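Here comes just one.
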Amino acid sequence: MTRFDRVSAMETVECMPESVVLEHTFVFAALESEAQHHSAASDFLERLTSAGTRLLFTDLLELQLHDRAFATARLAASSRQGSTRRLTSGEQVELARAFLGRWRAVLMHSDAVHVEVSDLMEDLMYYSERFRLSSSSAVHAALVMAADADGLVTVDPSFGVVDASLLPLFLPADVVRFVGRGRALRA
């Protein structure tokens, strides 16, 4: 790992990392305008892409984004405030496909690298056993280690349980305070 060895508030990062691992909560926040942390995540994704940062991701991330896109479309269909008409299933599919289209656009316009989950199984076990991360979270942490990436980009504070020397984090500034004790914000 390089110069990123702690928690960094994505809004304050000046020198962009060479490579990062994308976690699904970050990608969702960056691409979905209604998502919490959208502004910080969207801006950081744009800055990463513009800087030519290598964006590492797994097939699991793509499955998580697919699930989240359709779940969000179903939620939008059931919670249309002030509307007498609910979204049809076709309209829900259109919403989900629009989100997935935004993800594909990121892949096409960035230095994105896909890594198979099967290549990460040994490191995945380490993170699951040592830090009690779920398998889906451990995959992202394992990819940081396996690829010697500069860190994990997420909006999920639960990754703060992992030792800072093993998993540098890029988080929105308002999430930084929720990470585990022992982590410090880069000056």
Notes: The chain has a mean pLDDT of 87. Residues 7-176 form a domain with the Rossmann fold fold (CATH 3.40.50.1010). Strands lie at 7-9, 19-22, 54-58, 111-115, 152-153, 169-171. DSSP finds seven helices and six strands in the chain.
